[in-house]
Design brief:
The strands form two sheets. This protein has a three-stranded mixed β-sheet with strand order 3-4-5. A two-stranded antiparallel ribbon has the order 1-2. It has helices at residues 2-28, 49-53, 61-84, 106-118, 151-170; strands at 91-94, 102-105, 123-132, 137-145, 177-183. With 192 residues, it is α+β, with helices and mostly antiparallel strands. It is elongated. The longest helix is centred in the N-terminal third of the chain and has 27 residues, at 2-28.
Length: 192
């Protein structure tokens, strides 16, 4: 969901900046703007003296301006932290027993988990994503099941086989998992 919001916001902001910048550039190069446009020539200012001082005496003006700007700054900071935060775990440290240790790539562990979960009876597709911290990873598992399968059995197999193997092989004390199960779409057979 965050990816969709991010792309829509970046697209909207980019389009708005492109249109405003292009129109200011066009007017600056001598193109005549329409009569309703905010700039009327290349030496026109963005805000006239009357527009800048219009609401100066109103008691609500400056608190409203500051509140709107504060909300915009907070939204921009939230957006920036959401974009910069890593959603996928890159690597997991593994204790090798010799004091050195090793790093296990997150994508490799995701691939093994997905393959082992997908081999269970009745699983049409499996997708795994590792999140959390390096020292305390968490797994997000999405399973698509065939219509005839009992979800409880598949969930038991996933926790007892795939997640246990991953936890043991990486030397983790725990590997919490969030599992989302969907039914595979299929067409009904016609009987003639």
């Amino acid at each position: 969901m965050l990816t969709i919001v991010n792309r829509v916001l970046i697209g909207a902001v980019g389009l708005l900046l492109f249109l405003l910048g292009g129109s200011v550039l066009a007017v600056g190069l001598g193109l005549r703007p329409p009569s309703w446009w905010i700039h009327h020539g290349r030496h026109d200012v963005l805000l006239s003296h009357a527009e800048r001082t219009r609401w100066r005496d109103a008691g609500w003006w400056w608190p409203t301006v500051l509140a709107v700007l504060a909300v915009l700054v907070l939204l921009a900071l939230w957006w920036l932290t959401a974009v910069l935060r890593r959603h996928r775990l890159a690597e997991v440290p593994v204790d090798t027993g010799d004091g050195e240790g090793a790093l296990l790539r997150g994508k490799a562990l995701e691939g093994v988990l997905a393959r082992e979960a997908g081999e269970a009876d009745g699983v049409a597709a499996a997708h795994v994503r590792l999140t959390g911290r390096r020292t305390a990873p968490e797994a997000r598992v999405a399973l698509r099941l065939e219509p005839h399968v009992d979800p409880g059995t598949v969930l038991h197999d996933l926790t007892e086989r795939a997640l246990r193997h991953a936890r043991d092989s990486a030397g983790l004390a725990a590997l919490p998992a969030e599992v989302r199960i969907r039914s595979a779409e299929y067409r009904a057979e016609r009987v003639s």
